[in-house]
Write a structure and sequence with these properties.
- The protein is mainly β.
- The protein folds into two domains: 5-334, 7 Propeller (Methylamine Dehydrogenase, Chain H), CATH 2.130.10.80; 340-436, Immunoglobulin-like.
- It contains no helices and 42 strands.
- The strands form eleven sheets. It has a six-stranded antiparallel beta sheet, with no helix packed on it. Strands 19, 20, 21, 22 and 23 form a five-stranded antiparallel beta sheet that branches.
Length: 438
């Protein structure tokens, strides 16, 4: 089955699904275990077609899936979006929750600092993109349709990022930079991309610590041709502006990206032209030097409907592309720099600003500690991908004290991989820790 949508679950497994797309590959939902290198099929299927849905992980540990395809285009109709919403558990499968107010095909979903889910865009019931925004409350299991002040005509799968002040930046896939204020439920324009907004299936990632709010924009296609130009903006500045940086080595339509535990960004796949001429060599972006480095080629071309995400062991899982069932795992160079740090235990959950111990070997050799949020990815868009460096201190040869994030704007509640690196830059296998609000 093509991995059109994929997510890392809190048990460390990868769940992936496509939908009833008419492909020869069955539209089942499957789970891959990195530990046992096995694939299993979930016991049930969604009641509706979740092809081209939005997805993000809830703080309770289940995957939240919204929208999909209610009707495929025909002689007299365009795509029509589905109103359905689901919770997806890696063992129990699909559970339907209350429907949205409008249908959504190609919507985006992102967790806000208070644990609720903002859902925007998507092709609606009438075949046009809906301007209506909705918020799902997982505790109440209910939807709120936002007032007209929150209406906004956004492109399909707009790239959303929660900022350090709790607002949500939106840019990419044809949208110039705009910001949603969830407190007053209004949008404001920032702009600045100029002609560069005229791309689709481009990449927008928050690189560097979440408190820096630095967005990288690159890739995508214009008039069928892949693009390599790259721009950065620092939204923590009083007057932010886009500036050009070094381009990628290859133009990439539909690239996927993964934040690595060593600060770099891994970018893979895509085509030099739209859905063609695949780029086999991934690239690594260093946000400090703002430079790109190519790496060893992949074995399988990754174009439309491909996905990629970070695993707890520091490797990168890559899957998907229409009609493609093979998956690959990339091992970054830091895994060959020496032995891993050894952790003896880790908490299942922590609260904001909590100091918690990690018993481990050679705690005095720890150089870096961070949270990286679990991935939920589709259509070159990892919904919620971010990392937060954590303060730490070795209080003995076998004990590390770590301080959890203090601000849910920087780290919305939910599950994070806890990456601990030694002085050689080698990460321990990351335990998955739930960050909760008391």
């Amino acid at each position: 089955m093509a991995a059109v949508h994929a997510a890392l679950m809190p048990n460390g497994e990868v769940v992936y699904y496509s939908g009833n797309t008419g492909q020869e590959i069955p539209a089942a939902t499957r789970v891959w275990s990195p530990r046992f290198r096995e694939v299993r099929e979930l016991p049930n299927a969604p009641e509706t077609d979740v092809f081209c849905s939005g997805l993000t992980l809830l703080w309770g540990g289940r995957l939240f899936v919204v929208g999909g395809t209610a009707l495929y285009p025909g002689p007299e109709n365009p795509f029509i979006g589905s109103r359905a919403a689901y919770l997806l558990d890696p063992f129990d499968g699909w559970e339907r929750v209350p429907d949205m107010a409008v249908g959504r095909w190609y919507p985006s979903a992102i967790m806000l600092a208070d644990g609720r889910i903002l859902v925007v865009s998507g092709v609606g019931d009438d075949g046009g993109i809906t301007p209506i925004s909705e918020i799902y409350d997982p505790i109440a299991n209910a939807w709120e349709v936002l007032p007209e002040s929150a209406n906004r005509m956004l492109p399909l799968y707009p790239r959303l990022h929660v900022l350090p002040n709790g607002e949500v930046a939106c840019v990419g896939n044809g949208s110039d930079l705009c910001i949603f204020n969830p407190f007053v439920q209004e949008w404001r324009d920032v702009g600045g991309l100029g002609e560069l907004i005229d791309r689709h299936d481009d990449l927008v990632v928050m690189t560097g610590p979440a408190w820096g709010a630095r967005l990288l924009h690159t890739g995508g296609a214009h008039d069928g041709e892949g693009r390599a130009e790259a721009q950065m903006i620092d939204l923590s500045e009083a007057e932010p502006f886009w500036r050009d940086i070094a381009p990628m080595a290859h133009p990439r339509w539909f690239p996927n990206s993964v934040l690595l535990p060593d600060n770099r960004l891994f970018v893979c796949g895509g085509g030099r032209v739209e859905n063609g001429d695949p780029v086999m060599e991934p690239e690594l972006f260093d946000p400090v030097t703002e430079s790109w480095t190519t790496d060893v080629p992949m074995e399988v071309p990754r174009l439309y409907h491909s996905t990629a995400l970070l695993l707890p062991d520091g490797r990168v899982w890559v899957g998907g592309t229409d009609g493609e069932t093979r998956m690959e795992v990339y091992s970054p160079d830091y895994l060959f720099a020496g032995p891993r740090p050894v952790l003896f235990a880790a908490p299942e959950s922590v609260t904001y600003n909590q100091t918690f111990p990690i018993p481990m070997a050679d705690a005095f050799d720890v150089a870096d500690v961070r949270f990286i949020r679990l991935s939920a990815v589709t259509h070159a868009w990892n919904m919620g991908q971010r990392f937060v460096p954590l303060a730490f201190a070795a209080t003995g040869p076998e004990n590390l004290e770590i301080v959890a994030p203090s601000d849910p704007n920087l780290a919305p509640p939910g599950h994070y991989m806890l990456f601990i690196r030694n002085s050689a830059g080698v990460p321990a296998e990351a335990p998955i820790v739930l960050l909760i609000v008391t």
